[in-house]
Amino acid sequence: MEQENTLNQDGQSNGGVLAHLERLETQVNRSRKKLEELQRTQAVESTHGTKIRKLRSLRDKLRAEVKQREARVEACIAGEEPNQTSESSEREVLERKRESVKAILQAYHFTGLSGKLTSRGVCVCINTAFEGNLLDSYFIDLVIQKPLRIHHHSIPVFIPLEEISAKYLQTDIQHFLFSLCEYLNAYSGRKYQADRLQSDFAASLAGPLQRNSLCNLLSFTYKVESRGQSFSFCARLLYKDLTITLPTDVTVTYQASVLSACNFSLETPLEERANEAES
């Protein structure tokens, strides 16, 4: 009985030691795993910490550069602000003039005035007409800058373009274009009438029709048949106002043994003209 008790005690003792060893081994394995995880975590944290330090360094460097650039920009603005303000003001003025010209072209589209915007400004086309007949077209290329200037044009040299420009181009672009249209339409109308007179009444004219380049001075001789006799008259038409298509002064001279002249003016009443003709 004593021997069995000793075996039981040894077995229980041996079993207790093995169980304790297994528990220790389990604890060691757990500790090893925790240690490995801790080491991996520390390695990751170390890597992240290095990246964080680099990013912070880069952030501080960028902040310093931004502050330096802001300081340079403020210095430039402080030094150039008057010039920039002046340039901005001039640009706004030119833009308003450009829009004004565009609005004028749209308004005058049905009156023979048209145009299109260009890289420099605007090109205006003036189409002339007389009594429903479309005649010549002219263009003028304007540069929208300060001051406004004419780049190219096809306006005849005898049209007072420089005078009109000096009066209205810088102050009233609408009046400038309107005045130029008046001159060109009147010139085209006078030229058209002279051409028609020479072509349609060639049989009644004695010799060629004489006129100047502006067509504001015409002279011609024409014949009138009456009771088998032919009478010759010399006519002289003067247009003092270059913006109209009717003569302001008319002189008709009868060619005979005794020369007599009848001078008419658009300002003379019709009754006085009739009296002069009868005398």
What does this protein structure show overall?
It is a single chain. This protein is α+β, with helices and mostly antiparallel strands and 279 residues long. The chain has helices spanning 2-107, 161-169, 173-200, 270-278; strands at residues 113-117, 121-130, 133-143, 149-153, 210-211, 217-226, 229-238, 249-255, 260-265. It is built from four helices and nine strands, in the order αββββααβββββα. Strand 6 (217-226) and strand 7 (229-238) form a beta hairpin. The model is unreliable at 1-9, 257-262 and 264-279 (pLDDT under 50).
Draw up the topology in text.
Layout (H helix, E strand, L loop, with lengths): L1 H106 L5 E5 L3 E10 L2 E11 L5 E5 L7 H9 L3 H28 L9 E2 L5 E10 L2 E10 L10 E7 L4 E6 L4 H9 L1
Antiparallel strand pairs: 1-2, 2-3, 3-4, 5-6, 6-7, 7-8, 8-9
Helix pairs in contact: 2-3
**Annotation field: number of helices:** 4
Residue-averaged pLDDT: 77
In order across it, which strands form the biggest sheet? 5-6-7-8-9
H/E element sequence: HEEEEHHEEEEEH
Largest sheet: 5 strands, antiparallel
The stretches of 5 or more residues where confidence is low (pLDDT under 50) are 1-9, 257-262, 264-279
Quaternary structure of the protein: single chain
**Overall radius of gyration:** 52 Å
Shape: rod-shaped
Strand content: 15-25%
Helical proportion, percent range: 40-55%
Structural class: alpha+beta
Count of individual beta strands: 9
Euclidean distance between termini CA atoms: 186 Å
